[in-house]
Structures are given as C-alpha cells and as structure tokens.
Amino acid sequence: MIARTFLLGVALAAMTTLPAHAAPSADDAHPVLTNAAAISGLGAQTEGYPLFTAELTRMRKSVDAAMKAGIDVPVPKDPGGGATHEQHKRNYMALYGAGMLYRITGDKRYADFARDMLLAYAKLYPGLGPHPAAANEAAGRLFWQSLNDSVWLVYGIQGYDAVRDALPPQDRKMIDEQVFRRMATFLSTGSPKVFDRIHNHATWANAGVGMTGYVLRDQDLVDKALKGLDKSGKAGFLRQLDLLFSPDGYYAEGPYYQRYALQPFVIFAAAIDANEPQRRIFEYRDAVVLKAIRTSIQSTYGGYFFPFNDAMPDKSLKTEELYQAVAIGYAKTHDPALLSIAQWQGRTVLTPQGLEVARALAAGKAKPFPFTSLLLRDGPDGNDGGIAVLRDGPGTKDQVLVAKNTAQGMGHGHFDRLNWILYDNGRAIVTDYGAARFLNIEAKDGGRYLPENESWAKQTVAHNTLVVDETSQFGANWKSATATPHQLWFSGDGQIRGSIAEMAGAYPGVTFRRALVQLSVKGAKSPLVLDLLRVNGSKAARYDLPLHYAGHLIDTGFALKSNVTTRPVLGQANGYQHLWVDATGTPAPDNGVVTWIEDGRFYSYRVATPGVTMVLGESGANDPRFNLRREPFILQRLDGARDAAFVSLLEPHGRYDAAAETTTGSESAVRSFTHRREGDVDVLTIGWRNAAATVVAIAEDTDPAHAHTLVLNGKAQSWKGPVGRFEMPKPEGKSR
Amino acid sequence: MIARTFLLGVALAAMTTLPAHAAPSADDAHPVLTNAAAISGLGAQTEGYPLFTAELTRMRKSVDAAMKAGIDVPVPKDPGGGATHEQHKRNYMALYGAGMLYRITGDKRYADFARDMLLAYAKLYPGLGPHPAAANEAAGRLFWQSLNDSVWLVYGIQGYDAVRDALPPQDRKMIDEQVFRRMATFLSTGSPKVFDRIHNHATWANAGVGMTGYVLRDQDLVDKALKGLDKSGKAGFLRQLDLLFSPDGYYAEGPYYQRYALQPFVIFAAAIDANEPQRRIFEYRDAVVLKAIRTSIQSTYGGYFFPFNDAMPDKSLKTEELYQAVAIGYAKTHDPALLSIAQWQGRTVLTPQGLEVARALAAGKAKPFPFTSLLLRDGPDGNDGGIAVLRDGPGTKDQVLVAKNTAQGMGHGHFDRLNWILYDNGRAIVTDYGAARFLNIEAKDGGRYLPENESWAKQTVAHNTLVVDETSQFGANWKSATATPHQLWFSGDGQIRGSIAEMAGAYPGVTFRRALVQLSVKGAKSPLVLDLLRVNGSKAARYDLPLHYAGHLIDTGFALKSNVTTRPVLGQANGYQHLWVDATGTPAPDNGVVTWIEDGRFYSYRVATPGVTMVLGESGANDPRFNLRREPFILQRLDGARDAAFVSLLEPHGRYDAAAETTTGSESAVRSFTHRREGDVDVLTIGWRNAAATVVAIAEDTDPAHAHTLVLNGKAQSWKGPVGRFEMPKPEGKSR
C-alpha cells in the first residue's frame, strides 16, 4: 500500500474556460487525444441526455469507490483472474474514469487521485522485470501477458491525458518518464516481436504507444506505432489496417476477436484524427475502420457475436469495445442506425463522441440497424473465402444461417473450413463450441485457454463440417493451414438464398464443396435449410459429418443401438476422444430423421445420404477436470467411400407452449426427402405431407449467368445460376 | 365437419338491459355462474382498464380465428398432444371465450358459434364409448383420460351458461340433455371411482358436475358435487376442501398440482358463492380457499413453482389457473398484494372478477406481494410435516431455501422425505428433477408420464436426501408411504433461520433428522447454508446423500479418480441405474470441497463428513430413448455405518461478469469447516479466511424454550432453542 498524498495549493483555471483543442507543442500539457473542450465542465448540463448522465453516475460511483478504497498498486504476482491481476485492471479503469470525470465535472479530487495512483506506479514500474506468472505467451510486467500491459497503457494514457494539465510540472515529468515512456519503450522497442506482428496483440501495443507519443509530444513514438519499429511501413498500425481486415471490414481472426481488436483500432484512429487530421485515417483504405464497426455489428445474433474460432459464447455488443466503437463511428458518420445499437446497449462512453450519441438519442434520431444477409469476404484482397450470412429478416428472432468459409484466422483459428451454424427463434440451434476456456476464472488454468482448446475446440470434429479419416483439416497445424475456401456463389435475397463454397487442400487429395440453401416455405414459421456436401477423394476413406446442436432429443425415425450401461468414446485422438457415444443407427431411405426440441420449437434433421451410419452422442469424454461443456451431436458416417454426397435437411416446426399446455405442429411437415444426380445437377426433392413437393436443383456450374434445364414430372424446367427451385403441386385426388 | 347453421330472427334485448343476477328458477335461462350483469354489454367501456382490454383483444383474436376455421368436432382418436386431443381442447377454450365475448360485446355471432359447436357435440357425444387411446388411468370419452373430459366440462359449462339465454328453447334442450347432462352423468354416477376420490381429478369432476347442476337448475347434481354421490359428505367438493388442504392452505400433492387443482376449487367456489351465498364457501374452514390462493403464490421463486413431486419445472404463475385464482381472490378480498401478481402475470380473465382486477390496477392500487419465510404445514390437521420456506428477502433474486418435510402427496408424490432445494441469484441451484415427462409432446409417450418417472424421478436418489442401501424410501410404494416427517423446529426470521425435521419409518429401523440453517454473513452477497443430517440405524448400512445441482463444475479440493474413457453407471436399480459416474474421490478433513459456477456466481459445497467417499456424475444412464435431462450431481457415500452424520456447507460467492471480463471472489471465503459433538449438541465451526470464525451449535433438544450452554474458546456461551450462533473474532495478530 502506498500512502495517499495530497497536493495543496495548486490553482487551476475553472474547467469551463479551458482552451479549445489546439495544435500540440512540446511545452503545453492540455488534452490531445480527444476534443476535450466538448465535455469540459459540462457537469449538470448533461441532464437532458439520460444515456450520458447514467454513464456519469455509474463512473462516479465506481471511481468514488476506488478513491474510498485507497490507492493499491500491488507488486505483480497472480495470473489472469488473480488478485494482483484484477487490481491492476481496476486501476486502469479507475485512472481512465478519473480522467474523464475530471474533464466533465472539473472536480480536482479526480485529478489528484489519478496523479497519486500514477506516482505509485512511477515508484513500482521501473523496478519490474518479467511477470512471475508468465506462461507461453509474451510476458508482461504488470500482467502475465504483455497484451494486458498494452491494454493498461491504452486506458491509462487516456486517463492521464485528461488530467495532465492539472498536474505540477515535477509530477508530470515523473509520470511522463517513469510510467508512460518506460511502458511505451517496453511495449515497443522492448518487445519487438509483439510490436511488429500483424496481430491484435500488436494493435493494442501500437495504439498504446502511439497515443503515448501524442501525449508526450513525441512524434517518434507515433511514427513507430503507425509504421513499425523501423518506420518502413512493413509493420505498425497502418499495415495492420491493410492486412487484418478484408475489403468488407471482416477481421482475420473472426467476430469474437474483431470485437476485441476493434477497441484499439477505433480509439487510436480517433486519436490520429484529432492530432493528424491530414492523415484522413477514417477514409483510409476505403474507410475500413468504419466498415469494421458495421461488420462487427452484422456479425451478431440477438446482440451476441457468432462464436467462430476461439470465442466465448457469452460475448455481446454490450462490451466496452463496442460502446467505444459505436460512439466513435457515430461521431464520424452520424449514421442513425448506430444509435439504435447504442439504445440496445443501454450504454455509451464518457467522451465527446459518447456525448454526441446521447444527445442524438435524446433527440429521437435513432433508426433500426439494417441487419441483412451479406457475404463478408475474408483476406486482405477479399480472395480468401468469407463468411456468408443469410438472414430471414432483420428481427432478433429471425432465422440466421452462417456459413464459415474463411481462411484460418491465425493462432486462434479453428480447423473448420465450410463449417456452418444456425440461429432460429432467438436461439443458437446448430452450434459452434467456441473456445474451451473459462475467461478470468483462476481455478481453470488461471483463466487461460485450456488444454482442451487444442485437443477439442479447435479440432475439425468439434465443428459442423467434413472430417476425413478421423483427422483434422491441415493436421490441426495452423501454420500450414494456408489453403482457403473459394466462395463460388452467394445469394442473400428472395426465394433462393444460399451459399456454395469449395475447399481443396485441407486434406490431401480431397476436395469438398458445400451448398447451403435457406428455403422459405409458405406456412412455415421459419425457413428450412438444405445442406449438400459433396466430397471427391483420391482414395477410399472414412468421411464423418457432425452436426452439433442445442436441444433435447425427442425422437428418431430409425432404430437405435444404445450404450446405456457403459458409455464408450468415439475415437482416440483429434477431438474424437472427447465424444461419448450414446447410440448408433443405420437409417433406411425413408426414416433418416432425428427430432429435437429447443425452447418450445421442434427441429427435424433429415438425411438422404445413402449408406450412412448415424452416431448420437455428447461432448465431455476424456475430461477429468470437467473443462468441457456437455453438448449433444449427431454424426453422419460413411466408410470406404472415395466420392460421396452428404444430403441433409433441417426443418424447424411446431410450437410447445408450457404456460398454455398446448402443442402444435410437433410432426414434421416433410413426408419424404430424396436426392439424385442428373448429369451435373444435384436434384433434391422435399415431399410435403399434403403430397405437394419442392424441388431444389443445384448445378455443378456456379456461374450466375449460365442457364440450366431439367425435366420434372415430364416438363422441362429452366433456371439461371447454380440453384433452381420448383414447386410441384399435389397430384389430383391425393391428400395427406 | 358440421356445417354452420345460422338462426335468424331471434330478437334479443340489448345486452345492457339484461336483468341483474337473480335467484335461478327452473324456467329461466340467464347466466348463473357469475354476476354476468357486471360485464354485460361493456364493450368499449373497458378502454380505461388496459389489462381487461388486452384480454378482450386476445380472446377476440382467438375466437374469431376459431370461427373462421369453422366448427371441427372430430371423433376422438389421439392421446395427449395428438390432433383430436388438441382440437377438443381448442373447442372448450373457444366455447368459453365465445361465451364471455357474447356477454361483454353483445355480439350475437359469438352465441351462434357456441350453439353450433354445442349442437355438433350433441350429435357426437351420445354415441361415444371409452376413448380408444385410453391408458392406465380412467378413460374419458372425448379425451384419453376422463380428467380432460372434466376440464372440458368446467370450461364448456361456463361458456354455455353465458349464451344459454340467447338460444331458442329447442336448441337449449338439445344441448342441455345431449351434451351437458350426459357429460355430468358420465363424470359422476358413470365414473364413481373418480368422482368420489379425494384427489384433484375428482375436484375437476365435482366442479364440472356442480356447475352443470347450477346451469341446468338441477340441485341433485349440485348436491352430489358438494357431498359425493351418496350425498353423505364423505366425498365431494367440501370433503376435498377438508382433506386436500392443510390448515395453511397447502395442497397435499405439492405446489405444481396445487396450481393445477386450484382452478376448479376457485371457480366452483365462486359459482357456489353466486348461487348459494348462504354456504359462505369462501369462509369455509377458516377461509381455506383464499389461503390456498396465497399459499400457491408463496410456493414460487421468480414466479415459478417449487418443482416438488411430479412437476414440470417450466410452470409459473403465468397460467390460466392463476389468472382465475388471482381474479377470484381479489374480487373476494380486495387485497392489493394480489394486484401486483396480476401485474407480473400481465393477464387476467374476462369475468366480472377480472374486470375488478383490471379496474383496480388501472387505479394504481397494486402493492407488492409479501413473499416471506414461512412454514406451510401439511395434512388435514397440519400434523403431517410441511414445507419450510426460508427467504433471505422478498425480491426475485433473493435466496430461498425450501425444505420438503411433507407427507407423500399420493400417486404423484416422490419418495423424498427431508429433501431440500435452493434458489439463489435468480436461479435454481440445488435442484429437484421434477417429473420425467414431456407434457403434450406426442412423440414422448403421448405426453404422458414416462417410464423414467417411476424408475428415476420418483426414486429417493433423484432427490437431495438420505438413501439407505441404494433403495428408496418406503420401497418406492406410495400406498405404504404413510409415515410422515415431524417438523421439530422452524425459524423464519433474524440471524438464526432454519428448519429441523425428523423422519422415522421411511426405511426399516432408520431414523434421520435434518437441520438446515440459512446463515446470513456480513459481507456475503447471499447466505450460506449449513446442512446437518444425522442418521440412527439399527444395523450397518450404506448411506448415500446426493446433491443435485445446476452449474458447471470448476474445481474440487480433493483428487479425483475419473472415468474418462468409459463411463459406468452407479447402480442397478431404484434410480441408481440412471446415474453415470464421472469420478470418485476421498477427501481429507480439510479439502472436501467442490466448486461450480452458475450464471456468474460460484458455489462451494464443503463437506465435513468423516470417512466419506464423494461420487460426481450425471443423470441419463439407461435411457435409450433420451427421455431424461442430463444434470450433474455430487453424492456423499458412507459405507458400513449404523449411526452417522452428514455435515455440509454450501457457500455462494463471487461474481464473473462476462461483459466486463472481471471476476471477483472466485475463492471461497471459508478456510475450514469442522464438526464435533459435545454431549447432545452438534458444534459446526466455519473458519473464515480472515481467521475469524462462526460457530453454529445445534442441540438435540428442539424445544424453543429450553436453554443450552457451550464453552467456546474458554468462554461459556448460552442460547435458547435448538440453534445457537456465535461469532469468534479473529485472534490478535493473525491475518489472511
């Protein structure tokens, strides 16, 4: 514990008379990271903007509590979730908060608190070596990984910038040199491997160092942050904007890390814009920063991020990163759709940008965010596949199908080329496990990624895509996972919505192509999903196609051989060792259906894959420390095939209402589901219970301009592009 | 399909001029079941009462849709959840709705629709024999069990009563005789075993028959309904009020069936009150009907009923039964606390009573419902144990501990004497499986109770109470399960809240006593729970104490022997065959702790049971049809003991915040937990991490007037009643 000291007799101009933002000079100390004048001394004037007022109240409560608790700058000791870890996190939050509160309220106590804490860091920091709990990743000084140190710096420098002109020169000098310059040096020249990477850890380091450069009026630090340690532009913030985002603003590591990475991108961009407007940073690369904000929001369902790659499924738009991103995005674009996101978040930030959001919301300017179907291309040039998002509507309960046809996404990427997930009725139905990790829970390996993240969560079998010979794509080696899918076709609107993508190189000699079609049907509450996965291999192999789902199994159309007294595991390695087998079965052509219920809606998964064996089971085997969630799966298995086609149909239907004790539509509306190949066209026929039928024809040739013809019920039918859809009326005289 | 016919030229007085309620005579046809004049012709006048207006809109939409669909009175065929089952359910709802709508709006189309439907029933009903899908239980005619027929009658007669005076005499006669008198006859003299039971099925039958008696002006039917077929009073509605409720208004089958049973009790009581006010039915037996309404509400957490016995966990106060009960209760008592329940329900009923609720709510008269700790005694005389409810506060997230020390509760009762459950932080934490059933889902045995309800859900091991030699209490035979617990002590307020109960006779030669203490501790967000279960047996036995919980296991203090590659089952029968064993372990005296997380809060379950073996596992073995939910359990096992004490402590602690990525208090605040016996006092000592301690002393003698003394840290401490609590400050100079 460092005793609090109080500095008396420092006279300050009233906050309301602070100079407006001006060009920085080496001598002045006024805030440079934001247009602080916009919020200075606002105080009670925020009352007309409830979102801002609420934020002010919340921050006051939090910082006042931190002030009451006294300054606590402990010697670093614990890993993530431990006491010193959490205290240093609380400190940077309190520092940031005290800075904002000082600007807004003009209350000198906040500046004093920030100074006292920073003086304590000035005593502690210079003596620190590598963190004692450092693990595999780059060691920090305050935290077990340097990433957290960078985050400390991003928050800390913002708080410091806001109070710096309230400090006497000797304190300012002490803090400048002993805290911020040392941290910036450690995180830049002292950590070249991290700083010059093309990776989100580097983005945080770049942002922290660059903002420190602005505040210390040190252009050298700024230039290193923007262009890498050698200032060549081969690394640094601008290069990351070039390489980490696709032309559609999709971030290479996927939505979960896009959220995380977004904060340093938007905050540093705003700081660059404030200090070097001539860089036109928000227009850089066709406005990729603003695209990234919108793409983040599009990559959610009910506000929760699609949990691809190493992702925690409980992450939503209600996070600090997105409060910042929405505020900065709105201040730059005045797009009223961003306001409805802020409304849903119920939060904003205590910055000039947050004030703009709160003002505009209070003025009733919000418009609905245009959630829509779209293809988010991956790769710096947009050529590395992408994420295909098919939305049945913009509502929070409308069905969304997401096909993951992206590149690897580096070390946090999963081996899941041509994976897909489905949301329906407000819930995740076809699921992605995400990461095996209990974030910040110390008893679970200090909150770090668990061994099961490698042995299970990243493996191909943990996803809804093809597994060859019980191995993972690319042998589960991400450094060799360079081959990417080709997105062959995408259609986001109308009666024929779908995605076709192809993957070669994930398994030696194997090419597979997947068509996913979202099929709106009259009278159905939600679309059906057709899934055609064709494999071409160079030799006979075991092909598995898992489907991980959420819900309680209700019924199967085929007989099951059940393991009810001892439960075996499915395999030995590559994730298979984590799968318990509950039952297996071999469906006949007309009974390959499994039905489950989730939140009062039924889902029937129907397969027309000839010769398939079905495996039903659950994750959680070989898990002595209870690190895994236990979630059900269905697996289609084909043995000894070289070329094969997995043909599946998922149908949401019916409703069980617990309060009213009523059930409707618990039976599938589908009577039959068949597949045949005619020339280079796959013909999938859904026979309805009323004896009508829907035929979906999928051509090998995916050129949207090419026409195809097929004879159905004796009549030639034509369509353009790869997918055709035809309704066959029910024959005369037939009924259910 | 019966063609709709329209009756023309029937002149009716305008609804607003209908005569007010008058004594019935054999000739008149005006409504008798409610004071229909209160709502007659209200129409647009309901606009100031939004709850009623919303109900009107909802009912109109539903009945208009039914009218548009046309009358469909199918020949009975399907079991629960099937098409004919659901159609007959829809019909009685539509009939009831049409009746209410006719009264409120005066729109003759509703009366015509009710008449047409009833005429269709008049054609169908007389020809019906026992239902073709009848199972074990008493067969109905319209439905697979006669219970549903009774429910049809309860709704149908109310709808008919409301339109009867709008019908021409010949139609009225046809419907009187061919539908209602036949149904009433079938359900009374035609089904004597059901009608004269003391059981909720009989209550529905009594209510339907009795109300039919009032409507048909047939006092004989009324008298049979009130006093049984022989009118002796040994059966019938009044006898059920005597025997099925305790003096505290607790219903013998438990909260779930209390909800279900409540509807015929309150509706028939209201009808009796309207027709025979001299019976003072709402004052009967110290106002037991009104007590039953309040007790139902007290038996909930967050609006959901405690899921004891055969219960579906998704049942809340948002059900038709409780809309009726709250409206009838409010109309009778004008207790403003009932209004807040109606507010939470967001619903009411289209009756004069519902109108009163809506009016009072619109006038802002609602007050919070006084959720509180209480002992709900069981048994007609209150001597058969009871349910001890310990609430940490009235809020929806406040901790609630419920000890189930009741009698069997007949055929839907579980073998779970001295079971307990815990809610905390808005969630069920220590759980009761409830029933093994998928209500109204046809693919699951027609929606009936599943075989696993007998083999698992009712068995003792499926509950959180003592199991002797892997068998269930009373050999799982409910007819011989006559012995009841003794509630020895209950304290619902202050620093010492708890329940002590004793059970003898559930196992031959075994008596066991359980003390559960809810321990509020300064600084803890939620109380800790102390659990002392002492067993005295006549011979060495295997004693098991399961704890079924909700959450993800985080850590154990002791080493585990895990079954990670094949998973065995725990036993062969009595529910044990449904338990998978994940791991076993033998804790040392200082490390017997298991920690899990649920919804961001940690729970540490600490045992101080000497010589105990711990079993960790999950339900779901021997379940080839996936009928069971898979839920985790911890089991304490003692082998070869005669007398034993299971000593456990459950501590909620900490918080994981996913949005803010912060974790606090993930470590238990408890450093040690010990138990010793001094004379006739059990001494449980909780040592805190800060070196202070809390001692709870539990005396054998449970007389609340008796004083006890114990020497603690060299100082004599005294207390009165069985439970004493003493805080030991931390010794000088010690810290964490």
TrEMBL record, chains A, B:
Boundaries of every Heparinase II/III-like C-terminal domain copy: 377-632
Keyword Lyase: yes
Signal peptide location: 1-22
Superkingdom per UniProt: Bacteria
InterPro entries: Alginate_lyase_dom, Chondroitin_lyas, Hepar_II_III_C
Single GO molecular function: lyase activity
Keywords for this protein: Lyase, Periplasm, Signal
Gene3D superfamilies the record matches: 2.70.98.70, Chondroitin AC/alginate lyase
Subcellular location, record wording: Periplasm
Location of the Alginate lyase domain: 76-293
GO cellular component, one term: periplasmic space
Protein name per UniProt: Alginate lyase
Organism: Novosphingobium guangzhouense
